[in-house]
Amino acid sequence: MVTDGRGGWFLAMPDYCIGNVFVNGIAHLRPDGRLDRSWHARLPRTPMQGAVGELARVGGTLYAASGAWVEALSARTGARRWLVVNRKGGWGTGLAANWRTVFVGGYGGSLFKGKRHWGPVALDASTGKVLPWHAALGKRFYVVGPLALDRRRLFMWESTASASSAVVAVDARTGRLTDWRAPQIKEPGNLLVTHGLLFSANSVDNNSYVASAATGQPVAGFGSQGLTGFSTITASGNTLYAWGGGPGCTTGGWKIQGQTRTSLAAVNLRTLKLTPWTPITKTRYVCIHAIAADPRQVLLAGPLTATNPANG
Prior knowledge:
The radius of gyration is 19 Å and the shape is globular. It is built from no helices and 29 strands. Helix content is 0%, strand content 42%. β19 (190-194) and β20 form a beta hairpin. With 312 residues, the chain is mostly beta strands.
């Protein structure tokens, strides 16, 4: 889920429907939470890895990606601006974009547009054209992703055929491998860079890590190094919002900085201290699968269950 920049939201919908309304893989919610029935996306139908798995928005353009295609859409209408299809597959998790470039994670040695790619693919943000940009990774690998982007660097988790792995950073303009490296982060499902920090979530070892975006070294004092397993994270302004209860709905809650939380937690990004902010719900425990935030509000998504009807 991502904000539309105007108080509304875009949601990737693997089931293609909200209620009985067909939304073709992406839904747009108005600021009041109602479905925007005037917004329509024309997404490709591919036999392999065709469902929307990644969303990113830059200004008035929404980028969507699956394992077989990347598409640019008008954030206001859903009209297609460009589409790049890779029917041979080879794209993995990871989508990051700025005003110039769209980066897509991939599997090592994937064949794309007749050329072998051993790193992420870079696309021109205006046209979708494949750019002559290559990440100068030191070894051949078999998967790259997820991705996170700041002004100068593209952060990525890379795993080689020899099973060695680390989160590394390359120059976003040149692809040059930098000396930034965070081997302590174990196979993350998500990366988020903000406020000079790199956060991981949904790691394979059920732990979450915070690394300095300047050095890659663990950040002391946060209280989550190998202790808190963030399932999903997002940030807005000076606040990091995190959920660590996993995809299931167990009643035990989850721990962060020595406290047990049964709902979303908020961390001040300037002090890295847990704040007292928490959603006000009608039940003691909620299940959260995804979160997004803008300067005014936080959007939570989860399953509607018979044991917890307040979810939504």
